[in-house]
Amino acid sequence: MKRPSWPSWMPIDPYIAALLGTVGLAALLPARGTPADVASGASTAAVALLFFLYGARLSTREAMDGLRHWRLHLTVLLCTFAVFPLLGLAAKGLVPYVLTPALYSGLLFLTLVPSTIQSSIAFTSMARGNVPAAICAGSFSSLAGIVLTPLLAAWLLGHSAGGFSADSLLKIVLQLLVPFLAGQFLRRWVGGFLSRNKKVLGLVDRGSILLVVYTAFSQGMVAGVWNQVTPARLGALLGVEAVLLAVMLSLTWYGAKKLGFGRADRVAIQFAGSKKSLAAGLPMASVLFGAEASLAVLPLMLFHQMQLMVCAVIAKRRSRDPEAAEARAVDPGTEGVSSRAGSAASRTAAGTAPRSG
Question: What are phi and psi of 253, to 5 degrees?
Answer without folding.
Answer: -80, -55
